[in-house]
Design brief:
homodimer; alpha/beta; 434 Repressor (Amino-terminal Domain); Rossmann fold; 3 domains; six-stranded parallel β-sheet; four-stranded parallel β-sheet; about 45% helix; elongated; DNA-binding; DNA-binding transcription factor activity (chains A, B); Transcriptional regulator, LacI family (chains A, B); transcription (chains A, B)
DNA sequence: TTGTATGCGTTATCAT
DNA sequence: ATGATAACGCATACAA
């Protein structure tokens, strides 16, 4: 590795002071056009590359935000990430992505690392297994935004979707289709998202005056859902409301193996509307969340906090929409 | 935002010098147990959080690498990313992910940003539209690894898969199944990957003494593939060899719309073996690349370069495997 | 308009 | 075993 060129090298080459070089490179006023030209030429000639670590250290602004996701390979999060990135790019921010694999210890580490790196802010989708890290951020008065989940009794910036409504719409749709034994394949209930979707499921049943069939909590992931459905092969359901599309796609596969037809024998509703929801056969009825928008709003909230345009927390609840396709 | 605690605050609290604090926090020898205890307690009491920007600036080591991908929402890259992240975590490195959206200008910017941030190294999947950035890295003697593609005549660190073999295996399989009019739905040929897979396609035809049917180049993405198949509805093929699984999944959907059965009327082979390849109906025959391994090897190569355990470039060609499923 | 000098927080060198 | 001090590259207050 060659050593990098510094502004002092550039200054020497251009025959000016480092201050002048700094002013030129940062587009400050009060520099004569000739000097500016001289400096820029010297910088180009020497191949100057700004040292952002020094600059960030000096100004204590990194123009970088951290994103902590529980599973960045889930298409839901990749889409949200794109939304964040798009906005961040627009404001000249870089994004550091950290994956927790739904492990709370990883989550704690990720937050610590980002704090050490002095990112300007953090967007996090917490596991909700515990919340020490969130409280730490709060105590530090560090700019952060919670994405995708809602913490009861914690007054912080949040952007999440109206999951009670989502659960309600999905279940109501199934009930309207005449289904009476709707299995809900849910994520663990310590997550607000799981609780909210379940609440919607119950609400729809109540409205129809029908006794809810059954809800099971499982670990997230395709395998886990597939195995559960195989295991429950004797259960007499006529529909499944899934926590997300990944679960739903696993159900399609498992039901095929069990020789039960979708939607004739079993109707399926997913959640998230990831792109693959429309690619699979039969295509999935699902609850759509606008993932790009969610990411963009998360960044906007964070940006307001970073630039101190706003001090009081704000909770944004995104509307959801039922997308009816072939699986119901 | 509160101001962060510094080692000098900790030193004052513990009644020692900043040097001693630094020594303790970096686990250096020659510190008495009592002093160590005193310092750690002071640090904890004050809520000290290391300033990595200062540390990185001083030591000119960031313990961070940059990853530049052309499309981080493609499951292929998310899986590779996991492999990289896994290894990086093991060595105490953080990863900055940057997306180019297959835009060469974004690629140039991403590389510049990472250089400014003084990451310790870069893993990049270049668009191959041009290669100024690669040559820049080369000239700087900056540690980097190219992932997924091969540059002819450029002696650099690379990890990519044996795509001539992949194209050959896929095509041979279709020919053995009696298909004679195999359409190849390819990516643009300025990409080495597209060229190599096509070469394998030709090789298999030659071996069977059969005239190749037709190859079309299209932009990457689901929509693009779907539209192309709809557009070619009059073309009389009996099989499609797709550049990747995303194309293949689009073909499944398009052929369904065209009322042509898979695999009876048209057999389909994809490439990459992303997880969704086995989730779709019919499940996809595809060429498997071990994506985790590819990511892990990329990191290992980079690590060797960063730590200067190796100076001469190394090209690793990963083996591929044909996975036969229902689509052929 | 331009130059000089200081300090950001840490690590490293060199005394003690 | 511990402390004083310099240095990293840059941005900035202030002087010229």
């Amino acid at each position: 590795m060659k050593k990098f060129v510094t502004i002092s090298d550039v200054a020497k080459e251009a025959g000016v002071s480092i201050n002048t070089v700094s002013r030129v490179l940062n587009n400050k006023p009060d520099v004569s056009p000739e000097t500016r030209k001289k400096v820029l030429e010297a910088a180009k000639k020497l191949g100057y590359i700004k040292n952002a670590t020094a600059s960030c250290f000096r100004r204590s602004v990194s123009k970088t935000i951290g994103v902590v996701f529980e599973d960045s390979s889930n298409p839901f999060y990749t889409e949200v990430f794109k939304g964040i990135e798009m906005r961040a790019r627009g404001y000249g921010y870089q994004v550091i992505l950290m994956n927790t694999e739904r492990d709370y210890v990883n989550e704690l580490k990720a937050v610590d690392t980002l704090l050490e790196k002095r990112v300007d802010g953090i967007i996090i989708s917490p596991t909700q297994f515990a919340q020490e890290d969130i409280e730490k951020l709060l105590k530090l008065n560090f700019p952060f935004v919670i994405l995708g989940v809602h913490f009861e009794g914690l007054n912080v910036d949040e952007v999440y979707s109206d999951d009670v409504k989502g659960g309600y719409l999905a279940t109501k749709h199934l009930l309207e289709k005449g289904r009476r034994k709707i299995l809900m394949l849910n994520a663990y209930m310590y997550k607000s998202v799981a609780r909210m979707r379940y609440e919607g499921y119950l609400k729809a049943h109540k409205e129809f005056g029908i006794e809810p069939f059954e809800m099971v909590e499982i670990e997230e992931g395709y395998e886990s859902a597939f195995n559960k459905i195989m295991e429950l092969s004797n259960l007499d359901y006529d529909a499944i409301f899934c926590f997300n599309d990944v679960f739903a796609i696993a159900c399609l596969k498992a039901l095929k193996a069990l020789k039960r037809n979708v939607p004739e024998d079993v109707a399926i509703v997913g959640y998230d509307d990831i792109s693959y929801a429309s690619f699979v056969q039969p295509s999935l009825t699902t609850v759509r969340i606008d993932k790009h928008i969610e990411g963009m709003i998360a960044f906007d909230l964070l940006y307001e906090k970073i630039t101190e345009q706003r001090s009081s927390p704000k909770q944004i609840v995104l509307d959801v929409e039922l997308i009816v396709r072939e699986s119901t």
